[in-house]
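Reading a protein record of the kind used here takes only a little practice. An example makes this concrete, so a full record is given next.
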Amino acid sequence: MEMPAVDECEVWDCAYNRDGGCHALAITVGDPPRAQCDTYFNALHKGGDPSAVGHVGACKMADCRHNVDFECQAPGISVGAEKNAAHCLTYTTG
């Protein structure tokens, strides 16, 4: 099983965001009931590997249609700012 890529991240103040891309090796999504990016944090210094594309390492949103045994099965995800937090915009129930 391959981890899905973070195709885009619109949360510019995240320490792992460089030019709209996530550069954390793996992120964790969710702390139910919100599909937040738990890896998000703000820092003056940018982190992550600038040559790497971020992936979803774990997802705690069991009700998401892409979630199988807490692993994301979406081909890729988007992260964006929603209610002053970083959220998985690909999260969909059903």
In short: The CA atoms of residues 23 and 54 lie 5 Å apart. The chain has a mean pLDDT of 96. The longest strand covers residues 76-82. The beta strands are 5-9, 17-18, 21-22, 27-31, 34-37, 56-59, 67-68, 71-72, 76-82, 85-88.
